[in-house]
Amino acid sequence: xLTFFYAIMALNIVLVNILKDNDMxxxxxxxxxxxxxxxxxxxxxxxxxxxxxxxxxxxxxxxxFLPLILEFIFYRTSIYRNGADGLYSTPMPTVSYAYLTEQxxxxxxxxxxxxxxxxxxxxxxxxxxxxxxxxxxRSHNWLKTPIIIYASFFILxxxxxxxxxxxxxxxxxxxxxxxxxxxxxxxxxxxxxxxYLRKYKSSLDLEVIKKIPNKQLVEKDQQFIQKLEELMQxxxxxxxPDLNLAKLSELLQMKPxxxxxxxxxxxxxxxxxxxxxxxxxxxxxxxKSSDQNKLxxxxxxxxxxxxxxxxxxxxxxxxxQLTPSQYFKKLKNESEKKH
Length: 339
Hints:
mainly alpha
């Protein structure tokens, strides 16, 4: 959807710039549509479809694009054309203020939908941690970058055009106008293909696991804690990089929802943090062994269940407030002092 919007926008802008001395210019300016009010909803529904593969666009969802229809009508009126042209007049006519108001409301719309999309991504990321011990191929953190780009682009765009208008008398427009929007169209195409490729690699519909409020927790389930600890100590399932909630639940002979709920209640952690805490503990133990010199720090991490250097470094620093190399150096210094 985003790709469609900006493919049209880029085409219009290219034609307007190429044909600026042609009789067809008026026609292409007439059909040009910025689609400010369609970008936000498109970004939101794109994020929703990526994080929830079963999502289907419904008639009810179409109401989000009602402002886009009103924008289309507005762009067919003389208020838009005279307002846009009047921006460079002194004094600026009243219709130009109406045009600027419409533009900034569109920017606010994009920012609002961008914030909602980021919250949706954040919730999805937390939900993944209830089900998986590795997120490398399932995470959609990459989508944060284009969302932020969209949110900031139109603010910067309006600021740049105002600077160009007041300080440079519109002389810089030909240098930034076309390249900027073509670049934005390329970004749209990139996230479209990126989302399409990743959708079939990883995404599954995840059900939100309702947690019991802390006030309702009277005491911890010691039987579950003991059962979980014995499993982790004896069978060491955390050494499997592909361990997920379903596999752990099968070993515990419990339902996944029940296991996730009990982990949250009794361990004050989600599944992701719990499993990786065992992996970090195993890594620390292997550092102390006499065989630790046979492998690099990353090699030891892989033996302990990690399968990504970035994830290992991130989890390790979050747990110890030190990088793996800093921790190893500290451990080595302490060992030398004892001897």
